[in-house]
Amino acid sequence: MKYLNSIIFLSSLAISAIRGEVKYFSKCVKNGDFAITFDDGPSLDYSNAILDILDEYKVKATFFVNGKNCVDITTNDLAKAILKREYESGHVIGSHTFTHPFGITTLSKDELTYELNALNDALYDIIGVKPAFFRPPLGEYSEENLKVIEQCGIKANILWNLDSEDWDHNYNATQQYIDNLEGKDPYAHSFIALNHDIQKVTAETNLKIVIPYLKKLGYNLVPMDVCIGLPAYQSDYDENSNPKKIPSSNNNNNNNNNNSNGGNNGISKDGSGETVSGDPQNLNNNDNNNSNNNGTNNSNTNNNNNGNGNALPETSDANIVRNSVVLSVTIMLLMSILLL
Ligand SMILES: [Zn+2]
Predict the structure, then answer these.
(1) pLDDT at 21
(2) Whole domain around residue 338: which residue ranges?
(3) Distance from residue 67's CA to the centre of ligand 1 (Å)
């Protein structure tokens, strides 16, 4: 009998590991993969132009959308049409809250639950699925937020490791890519890049330069489900939050393989202030002249009140969970043998 408690403990450990929690990602799980993401849309002004560019270059991207930011998706037919186009084109739709509050760490449990569920329901009405991926406005969240987010069906919290700063007129969004990618190569690095489909510079200038540039460097441009190896929608998980299917890359976005090498710079800046609507920036249309090489080394410090999210895990959380399950089951089997 003395083993019984151990077995019960180990069983609960295994079950909790299987059940999992909201997983955290700031880069893709496979080197060479590059996920282009857009926050804050849909935008009646710019989202369709961005979709045209993605179609032209045959790139699948990810849109972390709001329900009522630029436009109310529950009432505006043009906004609904954009969301349908994004989904039906094979882009991933993620959650960025319903109203885009200025950070979620100050919201009550009920307020955050509303932010998640109102968007879940609105998207379900429009595209027939609820998002499993979440990006917190401003990149800020707390441990308490994560519990609520999980209860609303979210499986993965997605940050970024490359910030285009396309909302900030003090930055050149294209140059941000060039600077951040200097010294990196697809054999050793992967990226999740933050952009906004409500920004004119992104729709009219930046993407047209950056997408060919990324392909030239040899990166695979992938949607978020491929990037992190998890399904994008809640219906593709079982009751224990285990994925029913694992997305795979078809790698058809890739072109050349001219890789640079060396360098070990840090990657991005923090993501504050991202909801500012903006005007075009003055851009240099040179696609690969690296003008400076002092890569900012701020490892994506997200401003969390409770400290979670400051440190970026460098390994896939999904792998950690999987390994925990295997270890727990193995221990349980050994204990069972001892009992016999
Ligand atoms: Zn945002």
Answers:
(1) 87
(2) 1-22+320-340
(3) 12
